[in-house]
Specification:
This protein has 186 residues and is mostly helical. It is 76% helix and 0% strand. α6 packs across α8.
């Protein structure tokens, strides 16, 4: 619902989701979970809403459960299981991409490089499928290796972004200098 995206209108959005649930709209469980998961201290309610979504046949609720649990360090194992359940339940598109990608991040943080790589391969294959790309297995493997490396060393990506920002700022300076040099009579 649009109210969910408007800051300060969470109570109205929650009431609207609960009205939809009372009217029999089971899709509202996942939406309610999304809303509650963004509110500090309501993680338990969000998890319960996602589990209700799963119970009513909405397997994308597993992604929500995993995301809520992953924010709680003592429940990372349960988060991994929820992400696996999302993948195994036949999730497709962005739900499959997110569940596999989040599982890869979680496994990389835990030091399971092979598991992270396998999860990232699933995520990359799902992304390629969603975008209509026919990528070779070797390309999928390279993308998965890159994501695994970044997940294991997030500081490297931050460093790379900093370098890119500096180069990005230098680009126009170097271009104008090059243009001045080219305009000089010889």
């Amino acid at each position: 619902m649009l109210l969910s995206k408007q800051s300060g209108r969470e109570q109205e959005a929650e009431a609207a989701h609960r009205e939809a649930l009372a009217a029999g709209d089971t899709d509202a469980w996942n939406n309610l979970g999304n809303l509650l998961s963004k509110q500090p201290g309501r993680e338990g309610e969000a998890e319960a809403a996602y589990r209700e979504a799963i119970a009513t046949g909405h397997s994308d609720g597993w992604l929500g459960v995993g995301n809520v649990l992953a924010k709680q360090p003592s429940r990372e194992g349960e988060a991994g299981a929820a992400y696996r359940d999302a993948i195994e339940s036949g999730a497709t598109g962005q739900v499959l991409e997110a569940a596999a990608g989040n599982l890869g991040e979680l496994l990389a943080r835990q030091g399971d490089v092979a598991g992270a790589h396998a999860a990232f391969e699933v995520a990359e294959r799902a992304t390629a499928t969603r975008m209509g790309c026919d990528l070779a297995d070797s390309t999928i493997a390279k993308l998965a290796r890159f994501r695994t490396a970044v997940a294991r060393r997030p500081w490297a990506l931050r460093l790379n972004r900093s370098i890119c920002a500096v180069v990005g700022r230098l680009g126009p300076v170097l271009r104008s200098r090059w243009q001045r040099i080219r305009r000089r009579p010889t």
